[in-house]
Amino acid sequence: MRKLEEQGYEVCLPMLTRWEKTRGGWTKQQQVMFPRYGFVRCGRAEQSISPIRSTPGVTGLVTFGTLPATLDEALLEAIRVLAAQQARSVEERGCPFREGDTVDITLGPLKGMSGIVSRVADERVTVLLSLLGREKPVAIPAAHLALT
Question: Is the CB of residue 16 less than 8 Å from the CB of residue 41?
Fold first, then answer.
C-alpha cells in the first residue's frame, strides 16, 4: 500500500481490532477487514490506473470485464466509520470478556468447566460456575479463559 501512496494514489486499507489469546494473556491485534483487498483512488483526475497493476504486492484490480470496479464514496466512508467504531469498542474494554458471555476455563484447577461472566475487572473475571448444584461466583484470571 505504501508503494501506491508513493505513486500519488489515495489508499484505504480498513483494519479491525480483535482480541487474541497469547501465552501471556489476551492482547489486541489488528487484521485487515477485507483480506487481500484494498481501496485505491487516483490522486489526480489525469492519473492513470495502469501503474497499479505493476506495483509490487498488487496482484490485480477487481474488474467487470475491462472496467475497473468502483465504490461509492458514501459506502467507503461507512466502512471507515464501522472500522473506527469497532476499534473504539475494543479499546474501551480492558479484556475481551463482557457480562453475560459464556466462557470455558482453559487453565488452572477448574480447567474444563464452563460458566457465565458476571463481572469483569482489570486482572480477573468473575464467572458463575455450577458447583455442587449451586451457582457460585469465582474470580478467575482472564488469561485462563476462552470465549465459547
Answer: no
Alpha helices in the chain (DSSP H): 2-6, 50-53, 73-92
Per CATH, the number for 2-92 is: 3.30.70.940
* Nine-digit cell string for 7: 505513486
The whole-angstrom separation of Cα 53 and Cα 37 is: 13
pTM over 0.85? The answer is no
Q: Answer whether residue 115 shows pLDDT above 90.
A: yes
- For residues 105-132, give the mean pLDDT: 90
Tell me what the pLDDT averaged over the chain comes to: 89
102-147: CATH topology: SH3 type barrels. (2.30.30)
Give tens-digit pLDDT for 70-111: 999 999 999 999 999 998 887 777 678 889 999 999 989 999
Report d(CA 15, CA 12) in Å as an integer.
Answer: 9
Helix (H, G, I), strand (E, B) or coil at 133: coil
DSSP letter for 69, please: P
52's enclosing H/E stretch is helix 50-53
135 alpha carbon, distance to own chain's centre: 33
